[in-house]
Amino acid sequence: EGDLYNWEVAIFGPPNTYYEGGYFKARLKFPIDYPYSPPAFRFLTKMWHPNIYETGDVCISILHPPVDDPQSGELPSERWNPTQNVRTILLSVISLLNEPNTFSPANVDASVMYRKWKESKGKDREYTDIIRRSWGPRWTRSGMV
């Protein structure tokens, strides 16, 4: 409380996804030179997702520094720029929950499972079962389920 550089945020699982009904706590940590450098985004709720590290850190282009890195496979226009804001960050993270980027996985096992699930047209339940188990007791707006 009172620290303008560290925010706790809550994300509700997007509708029509396997995260629906979930209440996910996260932390946004802003650098001193924000908005010229991107904040860091970390889920505090355990997550199983191709673009979320075991630590909860999110791997998403919008939060990568605006440097030209040919090895990343990202266009400079996909990276951080000072016109981004908390709203665009949260919308991007919510969108990522629904559509993972399997070309740049933070969790390779989750990425492989996601691709298998996608190829099976949803019949391979291993991926979806792990997602549901990963966040432990389900927290919703009305409390624990």
Question: How would you briefly describe this protein structure?
Answer:
With 145 residues, this protein is α+β, with helices and mostly antiparallel strands. 23% of the residues lie in helices and 15% in strands.
Helix content: 10-25%
Going by helix content, strand content and strand pairing, the class is alpha+beta
How much is the radius of gyration in Å? 16 Å
How many β-strand stretches?
5
Structural account:
InterPro entries: Ub_conjugating_enzyme, UBC, UBQ-conjugating_AS, UBQ-conjugating_enzyme/RWD. It is a single chain. The chain is 23% helix and 15% strand. With 145 residues, the protein is of the alpha+beta class. Strands 1-2-3 form a 3-stranded antiparallel β-sheet, with no helix packed on it. It has a two-stranded antiparallel ribbon with strand order 4-5. Strand 4 and strand 5 form a beta hairpin. The longest helix is centred in the middle third of the chain and has 13 residues. The protein is globular, with a radius of gyration of 16 Å. The relative contact order is 0.18. The C terminus is likely disordered.
How are the secondary structure elements laid out?
Layout: E1 6-12, E2 23-29, E3 40-43, H1 86-98, H2 108-119, H3 126-134, E4 139-140, E5 143-144
Antiparallel strand pairs: 1-2, 2-3, 4-5
InterPro entries: Ub_conjugating_enzyme, UBC, UBQ-conjugating_AS, UBQ-conjugating_enzyme/RWD
Pathway: Protein modification
Active site: 59 (glycyl thioester intermediate)
